[in-house]
Write a structure and sequence with these properties.
This protein is of the alpha/beta class. 47% of the residues lie in helices and 8% in strands. The longest helix has 26 residues.
Length: 407
């Protein structure tokens, strides 16, 4: 049989879709939407887990330390220039906003994120004392996370950092956001200070700008960060009583689910070259989130998070509606997608039950995600899912694990 990375799954996918619809248009829609976007061309070799941290993590180590001795709000304002501006329609086109986000120049000419002398306040946090910065360990290396327990503060951070300070709509079921390619002007200011110091009396602003353009800009790792913004509220806006849990327990579990969920997106982006806002990615990420928090995988939890606890009915406000594409899948295609999600969740529940003991720790987490990522939603929802999932897991060699050295 061909290697897992070269599987031709088209016929299996078509057969599964034909079991649920006779519409060629719906089949074509779902064949396009559910295509596997991961880079599966390479052979998966044994790895030492966790992978090395990305360069920006060292800067966030310092921010985390600062957050333990001073207000986290002040640290964030130093690092996230967008927090110096209000959330307001049209803000993204404001000249002073553009100067800050494109050149690091805040009002008053300061370029290190410390200036606050503005005619109007920036982002106003409802519960600034609750903000937290952590470095979360993942198989792909540590990733910075900003935790905002207050819903208003989570939404403000997402609107500022991702939404360019515009009043973008944020669904109540959304509780985390991955920020990629963030231009960290605080890091750039540090590079500038170091460059100026090395050249002493020969340093000029023109020389720095030429150096920045020719040497620093092409090296994105020198100044671009990847981080996660998390809400501390109930995951997927599902309330504790719906799962038979008390409020405090569910808040803690929700944070753990979100961290593991976003860590999975981070792993697929770093190792498989893709992280997409689609339902297959969410299936994989929720698998890891649920198992990390719950100790095992629950298809019932996943379906509730998606809004499918009363399958085949869909509950408006469930997370499924956030990931149906743009333009969204047709109503008929969404009906079939619900069936696929249900059947795939059940297959993954069986898969995890068979292999739970070997899927522990960072190596186990990575192997599980890599195995699932080598299939498609239709294949995991197919009658042959059990055999396919076991085959894919067997195709992922067992690597080693290592401790991260201090410092």
């Amino acid at each position: 049989m061909t290697s897992a990375g070269k599987r031709d799954s088209r016929s299996t996918r078509m057969d599964v879709l034909r079991r649920h619809t006779s519409s060629p248009k719906v089949i074509a829609e779902l064949m396009a939407y559910n295509q596997n976007r991961f880079d599966l061309t390479g052979v998966v070799e044994p790895r030492d887990w966790p992978l090395d941290d990305e360069p920006h993590v060292s800067a966030w180590e310092e921010y985390t330390r600062l957050g333990s001795t001073e207000a986290v709000e002040s640290v964030l304002r130093r690092v996230l220039v967008q927090t110096h501006f209000p959330i307001r329609k049209g803000m993204s086109k404001d000249p002073s906003y553009l100067a800050a986000t494109r050149r690091g120049i805040l009002p008053g000419g300061v370029a290190d994120g410390t200036d606050r002398d503005r005619a109007e306040p920036g982002v106003v946090f409802e519960s600034p004392q609750q903000l937290e910065i952590i470095l979360h360990p993942t198989p792909a290396g540590r990733i910075p996370a900003i935790i905002a327990p207050a819903r208003a503060d989570f939404e403000s951070l997402v609107r500022a950092v991702i939404g360019h300070n515009e009043p973008m709509h944020i669904p109540q079921s959304m509780g985390a956001a991955m920020v990629a390619g963030y231009n960290n002007w605080h890091r750039i200011a540090q590079l500038r200070a170091s460059w100026m110091s090395e050249r002493g009396m020969f340093a000029t602003e023109a020389g720095w700008l030429a150096h920045f353009s020719s040497t620093i800009m092409p090296e994105h790792a020198l100044y671009q960060d990847r981080l996660v913004i998390l809400h501390g509220g109930p995951y997927s806006n599902v309330l504790a009583p719906e799962l038979g849990l008390d409020e405090e327990e569910w808040r803690g579990l929700s944070i753990r689910i979100r961290l593991a969920h976003e860590s999975t997106h981070y792993l697929t982006r770093k190792v498989l070259g893709s992280m997409s806002d689609n339902l297959f990615d969410e299936l994989l990420a929720d698998y890891r989130g649920i198992t990390a928090a719950h100790g095992t995988y629950s298809a019932a939890w996943f379906l509730r998070f998606m809004g499918l606890e009363d399958f085949p009915d869909y509950r408006a406000g469930g997370r499924m509606e956030n990931y149906c594409g743009s333009p969204p899948l047709s109503d008929a295609a969404q009906v079939v997608e619900r069936v696929l999600l249900r059947d795939a969740a059940r297959a993954i529940e069986r898969f995890h039950g068979r292999h739970a003991s070997s899927l522990q720790g960072m190596q186990g987490e990575a192997r599980a995600v890599l195995a699932l990522s080598r299939l498609t939603l239709e294949e995991i929802a197919s009658p042959s899912a059990d055999g396919l999932l076991d085959e894919m897991l067997d195709s992922i060699p067992v690597g080693g694990s290592r401790r991260r050295s201090a410092g």
